Amino acid sequence: MEAMTTQVIEWGVASVAMPGQSQSGDRYVVHPCPSGVMVAAIDGIGHGQEAARAADLAATILAKHVQESMIGIINCCHAQLRETRGVVLSLAVINAVEGDLTWMGVGNVEGVVVRAAASANPRQESLLLRGGVLGHQLPSLYASIIPIARGDTLILVTDGIHSNFADGLNVSDRPQLIADRILAEYSKGSDDALVLVARYLN
User: Fold this and answer.
1) Do residues 149 and 105 lie in contact, with contact meaning Cβ atoms separated by under 8 Å?
2) What phi-psi label fits residue 71: left (phi over 0), alpha (psi between -120 and 50 degrees) or beta?
3) Tag placement on the chain: N or C end, fewer CB within 10 Å?
4) Which DSSP string corresponds to the chain?
């Protein structure tokens, strides 16, 4: 649905609203930051206009506070979303200076990094998710840092996508094609769904 290349990543996103809804409550953020780029997938609680409103506010907050620490950004989101339904989200910062990726998940927005090198062990790493809802229930926050190499691919999906989406995944394709394929093949068809794919270029 949308694809773009930055100096740090090439990325693509695909999404669909829940059947019967005029708009999706899922949003994404791809935004430059001092060390590289911030990438996030956001799922507003519930469906329809109120879910979309919460997700839009979260996306705005992330972009506005992009220079802060990851835990600081999450705390800010939690405080400012109290009057909304709340959101769950997963957030990653790809640091092109240090060659690493810092990520954190609150709720059930899944994330994986698939390594470009066939010899990599493990070939695939999954984001540790912590239960909670920003705006209502904040878990203990912990950000993980992993190395990232040229060609490695980050994939974030909301819960409208089946959790086995990474099975047999071919990451040699362009990010937009990967996002489109995951949405087409693994969408549950009963919820909003969003897939964000970002490939590290440095």
Assistant:
1) no
2) alpha
3) N
4) -EEEE-SSEEEEEEEEPPTT-SS-SEEEEEEEETTEEEEEEEEESSSHHHHHHHHHHHHHHHHHTTTS-HHHHHHHHHHHTTTS--EEEEEEEEETTTTEEEEEEESS-EEEEE-S-TT-SSSEEEPPEE--BBTTBPPPP--EEEE--TT-EEEEE-TTB-TTTTTT--TTS-HHHHHHHHHHHHB-SSS-EEEEEEEE--
Q: For residues 104 and 24, give the distance between their C-alpha atoms in angstroms, rounded to a whole number.
A: 23
- Distance (Å, whole) CA 172 – CA 181: 13
Q: What is the pTM of this model?
A: 0.94
Q: 48 φ, ψ to 5°?
A: 75, -155
**Contact of 141 with 132, CB cutoff 8 Å:** no
Q: What is the mean pLDDT of each run of 10 residues along the chain (202 residues)?
A: 67 94 94 93 94 96 93 96 97 94 96 91 91 95 94 97 89 94 94 96 88
Q: Which two tokens stand for residue 173?
A: 């394709």
CA 88, CA 150: separation in Å to the nearest integer? 29
Contacts of 56 (CB under 8 A, 6+ apart): 27
86: left (phi over 0), alpha (psi -120 to 50) or beta: left
Parent domain of 127: 2-200
Domain total of the chain: 1
